[in-house]
Design a protein that fits this description.
Number of strands: 13
Shape: elongated
CATH superfamily of the largest domain: Nucleoside Triphosphate Pyrophosphohydrolase
CATH architecture of the largest domain: Alpha-Beta Complex
Distance between the termini: 42 Å
CATH class of the largest domain: Alpha Beta
Radius of gyration: 22 Å
CATH topology of the largest domain: Nucleoside Triphosphate Pyrophosphohydrolase
Helix content: 10-25%
Number of helices: 4
Order of helices and strands: EHEEEEEEEEHEEEEHH
Strand content: 35-45%
Structural class: alpha+beta
Oligomer: single chain
Length: 210
């Protein structure tokens, strides 16, 4: 799935290219790759597309396109009865309605935890006394940079949701067991949500088994 291009005829080995270009300050190491130039091809508040001209690990010249998406959060709230609170909403990129946790981008000057609390209140009207941070996931590592912080929300208090005008959200409440079955059946496909639900189920099973 790596989007790379380059002439397939034999070229000067990486080591020789590297020596020549680094002497002129042209190359920047990037793992086994070396970046010659970078240019932003498109940018808006949410997404940027960058094209790098590179020397590939095999020594050939090539190019690599990177899509960078604003870092974000995904939160799954679970109440004292073991029911998870999710969202059902049409998502433009996949062109269909999906069931998933609360998600949102981290604005400049805000932390992931602050964003998780804000999005939970906006989308579902839920205030959580506790947020458990499960770490960060990279949904797709080959050509997309989109780090997403994962949270479980507990100690829930219900209020009034205030979604943005473009967010037509229907709250979905189901048992954790049913949610895991929905993941297994391919009915919940949002990667960060799947990770959170499965980790919650694993942790609860471990506690139950002592």
């Amino acid at each position: 799935m790596k989007r790379i291009s380059g002439e397939m005829s034999a070229k000067q080995p990486t080591s020789n290219i590297q020596k020549s270009a680094e002497k002129n300050g042209e190359l920047r190491p990037h793992g086994p790759w070396h970046i010659k130039t970078s240019a932003v091809m498109y940018e808006d508040p949410w997404v940027s597309v960058r094209r790098d001209e590179v020397v590939r690990p095999d020594g050939l010249d090539g190019s690599y396109a990177i899509v960078a998406i604003k870092p974000g959060v995904c939160v799954v709230a679970i109440d004292d009865d073991g029911f998870v609170h999710l969202t059902e909403e049409f998502h433009y990129a996949v062109g269909r309605v999906t069931i998933e946790g609360v998600s949102g981008g981290i604005e400049s000057g805000h932390t992931a935890t602050e964003t998780a609390h804000r999005e939970l209140a906006e989308e579902l009207g839920i205030t959580a006394r506790h947020l458990i941070h499960l770490g960060v996931t990279d949904p797709f590592t080959a050509s997309v940079h989109s780090p997403t912080a994962l949270f479980v929300a507990t100690g829930l208090e219900r209020g009034t949701a205030t979604p943005e005008p473009t967010e037509l959200i229907r709250p979905v409440v189901m048992s954790l067991g049913d949610a895991v079955q929905a993941v297994d059946a391919g009915q919940i496909t949002h990667g960060p949500t799947c990770i959170i639900l499965l980790r919650m189920a694993i942790q609860r099973a471990a506690v139950a088994n002592g």
